[in-house]
UniProtKB/TrEMBL annotation:
It comes from Flammeovirga kamogawensis. The chain crosses the membrane at residues 54-76, 97-116, 122-146. Its main location: membrane. It comes from the Bacteria. Keywords: Ion channel, Ion transport, Membrane, Potassium, Potassium transport, Transmembrane, Transmembrane helix, Transport, Voltage-gated channel. It is a multi-pass membrane protein. This is Ion transporter.
Amino acid sequence: MSDKTSKIQDPGVGVQYDHETKRIINSNGSFNVRRKGTANFVRDAYHWLISIRWFPFVIVVGSVILSTNIIYAFLYMACGLEDISGVIVSDSMGDNFTQALFFSVQTFTTVGYGAMAPESNVIGIIASIEAFNGLLLSAFSTGILYGRFSRPLSKIIFSKNAIITLFKDTNKKSLQFRIINKRANTLLNLRASVFISIQEPITTSEGKEIHKRNFFDLSLERSKIMFMPLSWTLVHMIDEQSPLYGITQEEMIKRHAEVLITLKVYDETFGQDTYTYHSYYATDFLEGKRFIRNFQVDDEGDIILNVNDVHNIEDQPNYQK
């Protein structure tokens, strides 16, 4: 087993609070902190657009481009569509707007089919400004897309639950969780750091009750591996040196115990280290279970890995709480 389990200082998430707090890391991997006074969208648009999910990103970018074209379409209508060759002005506001929008899109994208063209200085100036705006927005969108695709992010999947189970064929209890690479690329030099946060109420000298977090290292049977073509089960032995020794799951829930994991991985695709973090709250622990092997060997000797079976568990025989 690795270094002895010991109490550690605040890892950066705070120690004392006036009230009980929720989990440190949410189930989606985000920190449970609501920030006030951070840079807004205007000041930090690039970082915001590169970090949000794909669906809102497509909605935001698409809305900006569509809104820009609609605004310019109304400008063309206000200045007079008769100054645009190829436009047939009608009594229908909808038909006029549709033609103005088509001209706006062609100008914005610099497609220029040749069917429509400005015939007055005012329309020409507006079209020139729109073409310039289109180039800027297209370049900005392309840069954001490149940044999103080139971000070095690992696709490490953690098992839905951490389990308290017997270690191999012994009667010693252990805390285990399993990880797997969602991608088919090669991961090298994996290193895991695991510690636990346990809350306890204390009373200050002024008689005020506060809630304090204590942090402990959780030593692992193996904290690093060279490569991970299969899954990796991380094991913490619950012995006399473990902060979990002699504590029931009900008590861990009452004391808001949370296991925090940081994983450092060298990703061969990106050619650099990536970091992944995750947590298991006390309610995520399952006792008396064990993981089911998620790979088999076929008749030809090839190893078949079932990635989606990383969460599968079954009852642990002869387990006693």
